[in-house]
Amino acid sequence: MPDAGTTTAGAAHSAGNTIRIAGMMSGTSFDAVDVAVAEFERDGFERDGPVLACRPVGMVSVPLEPGLRSAIAGLLPPHPTDIATVCRLDTELGQLFARVAGQAIAELGPVDLVVSHGQTVFHWVEDREALGTLQLGNPAWIAEATGAAVLSDVRTRDISRGGQGAPLAAILDALLVLSGDDVRRGSLNLGGIANITVSEPDPNGSGASGREVIAYDLGPASALLDLAVSQATGGAERMDTDGARAARGRVQTSLLEKLLSEPYYRLAPPKSTGKELFDALYLSRMVAELPISLDDLAATLTELTALLVAAACSRHRLTELVVAGGGIRNPTLMARIAVNAAVPVRPIDDFGLPAQAKEAYLMALIGYLSWNGLPGTLSSATGASSLLGSFTPGRQPLRLPEPATSMPERMVIVS
User: Fold this and answer.
1) Distance from first CA to last CA of the chain, Å, rounded?
2) Angle at Cα 48 formed by Cα 47 and Cα 54, nearest 5°?
3) Angle, nearest 10°, between helix axes 294-315 and 223-232?
4) What is the dihedral angle through the alpha carbons of 163, 164, 168, 172, rounded to the nearest 10 degrees?
5) SS3 per-residue string spanning 368-389
6) Dihedral sign, CA of 51, 38, 171, 98?
7) Could you report the per-residue pLDDT of 322-380, keeping only the tens digit for each?
8) Whole-model pTM?
9) Are 12 and 259 in contact (CB under 8 A)?
10) Contacting residues for 81 by C-beta, under 8 A, at least 6 apart
């Protein structure tokens, strides 16, 4: 693969304390690989406390080919697998991420660091404790193709310190969405799994603002809905496009009550979940021997997500909800959230980041923090405060700067 024309990391960082980072995300819906490039600058933004300036450069999104999507789906529980299949997929995903990173660099310009989340294939949680997590897509392919240093495996360190390793979005939400005013605001991400970040009074009174950030996975957003549509159509449809099926269908109360009885929903945060729980076997158990049309099932699963969101809004007494993620493209889901939550709903675009690119820009932010020796998780959110990820050197030796002495208190988006 040709050189994508990167700068060397050490030289770029020493020039004005600015760093360009490409954040790469392939989420639990595994429909596309998103790469967002951002420039981060700390100098000159200290008037109101330590402030980090972020300039979004742009995003490149590349859909996953059907064969690769099928390979990922075939690896997920409850399907059996073998180590040869895992090895092949780890390599194929690494090569794909390398191509997409190279394309982003060619279109958006050179970067100092690529942050690759990888493709989650298992998040191991037992009795509320996260014990391990696995994301595939070996970073060596990215480093070799682009010449840039790569940060990867961004969840494991948090788990090793007793955290959940999820949701990682809390750090971006805390710096961008929840800071700067006293609005009781929640930040919701709708991917395969829905997660929320809120700010609550600090019971220990240790925070400088008297508040602490809490984040946790609510439950399924598109995970069960996508699965239901794909199974019923033999793979001809992968999702409830534009929420059309849910809009035509009727909520089946008995099934909804059964779905809402899931014990996970009653656990206190910090907590995390994934497709390891909400998988094909789970869905089949829920609908077993229940005559229901696909449209009614879509309506019921959509209502489930909306009610989980509404319960969180009520629990945290929110007066505003900021939404991002693929679910924002589903007008039926968004309408049901608005009705059930009964609070104003606005996109994260209002804060300067495109809703579809939030998680990719989150990866870039985590890269900035790790580059400067700062934690990327908050103990009140995941359960641990952790320096995240593992670095793979690029074409030049890896030279990290002296660790920063303080965390940013907020992040501003600049043009």
Assistant:
1) 32
2) 85
3) 180
4) -50
5) HHHHCCCCCCCCCCCCCCCCCC
6) negative
7) 999 999 999 999 999 999 999 999 999 999 999 999 999 999 999 999 999 999 999 99
8) 0.93
9) no
10) 74, 75
